[in-house]
Amino acid sequence: MTDHAPPSAAQDPSDVAAFSDVVRGHRAVLVHLARQICPNQDYELAVDEALLALFRHWRSINGDRVAWVTVVVKHRAIDLRRRCREQADELTEHDVPLWSAQTSAEQRLELRAALARLPSLTRQEQVALLLTLSGHSTAEIAARIGVTQASVRSYRSQAHRRMRHWLNHHPPTRPHRTDAGEEA
Question: What predicted TM-score, i.e. pTM, was given to this entire model?
Fold first, then answer.
């Protein structure tokens, strides 16, 4: 027995060989199942976690191990889809990615003005805003800067509020060109 494996894990060579057969024979089907449940997420992660759970509980499973791991994959994929949906629910209309087709030329102009104003935000607001724009989740940002998720949401909200206030009082103007074609 190893120090890391629980007592019910596959331990002898015949168990390991049987586990390997399950992985070789059924992993593709399990990946397909997970991809159907959560196509836009890391569905292979759900499969890998389920296979690891199968290995850890190998001896304690008293039935069809393939059916067992299939149910675990299904549940892990549903959890993954749910977590991604919850993260998407955290986004507001102000969190639409700048590269999105929904972003207008006016919004891009506002962005240019907002970026010029970025140094006026607090360090926490800058980090929360920029990491959000980079595609990081609230949980990832919180872990990275060592604060709670509620703090990250607060920093992001404060940054948005301050930027909107600044833009409402100093609306962006389109750069005009000189006769030489340079922006002034």
Answer: 0.46
